[in-house]
């Protein structure tokens, strides 16, 4: 009975009440507020995990056919389709009427506390620190921005991704920042830094200031070169070509 009326967000794994009395056909409360505020549309009932509710479609649904990761990917893709600057209020989701102002400010903090450690963004990844390997703020800033991209997270963790060694190191950072993982401790991007320095021996030296954009270009040049190499091998084996990250995510504008 303690779980009655509680819902778990599929996208970020936070728990919220659905209002009282409990209405499985039209849940309210903090669950609805969270869906509209963060565009995390699907949540499951804690006392009946196979049952869920889509706040975008305004209908109950069974979750037995999809895993939580499947729904999380779908939710992130839906969010990424929204143009920058669009407001969720235009769809009627921006309203938080009926929730006191102090409660609206308190709910995100309660949700963060449930994660045990670290801070989580709206796409369900935990923000973890990175050590400075000698004036490497440019790399840390670049990687933190990449880790916040929902489309990149979905793409690089796809089982169809054709990744080389550096791509696999980058994917590991995404795995280590999943909200379901322990967020304690710092990330270690040293393998990525070493690989970039080996590829560009006259740049990104220790204790030397560098440009974040230049590091981004260099990193994706390496990752995409590995993708193209892996594509060649897969084509010879009758497999599909995996698009490079620069083209599929940035439309080639990152170079």
Question: Would you write up a description of this structure?
Answer:
With 255 residues, this protein is α+β, with helices and mostly antiparallel strands. It folds into two domains: 6-114, no CATH class; 126-250, Alpha-Beta Complex (Cathepsin B, Chain A), CATH 3.90.70. It is 43% helix and 9% strand. The chain has nine helices and seven strands, in the order ββαβββααββαααααα. It has helices at 29-38, 68-81, 101-114, 137-147, 150-156, 165-176, 190-199, 212-236, 245-250, and strands spanning 6-9, 15-17, 42-45, 51-54, 59-62, 119-120, 126-127. The strands form two sheets. A five-stranded antiparallel β-sheet has the order 2-1-3-4-5, sandwiched between helices. A two-stranded antiparallel sheet has the order 6-7. Helix 4 packs across helix 8. It starts with 5 loop residues before the first strand and ends in a 5-residue tail after the last helix. InterPro entries: Papain-like_cys_pep_sf, Peptidase_C19, Peptidase_C19_UCH, USP, Znf_RING/FYVE/PHD. Residues 128-255 form the USP domain. It comes from Aegilops tauschii subsp. strangulata. It holds the Pfam family UCH.
Strand tally? 7
Which residues sit in consecutive blocks of at least 5 with pLDDT less than 50? 78-122
The appropriate CATH architecture of the largest domain is Alpha-Beta Complex
Which CATH top level class of the largest domain fits? Alpha Beta
Chain-averaged pLDDT: 75
Tell me the structural class.
alpha+beta
Number of domains: 2
Helix content: 40-55%
Kindly identify the CATH topology of the largest domain.
Answer: Cathepsin B, Chain A
- What is the CATH homology-level superfamily of the largest domain? Cysteine proteinases
- Determine the oligomeric state from the structure: single chain
Strand order of the largest sheet: 2-1-3-4-5
Q: What does the largest sheet look like? A: 5 strands, antiparallel
C-alpha end-to-end distance: 56 Å
Helix and strand element order: EEHEEEHHEEHHHHHH
Total helical segments: 9
Instruction: Characterize the overall form.
Output: elongated
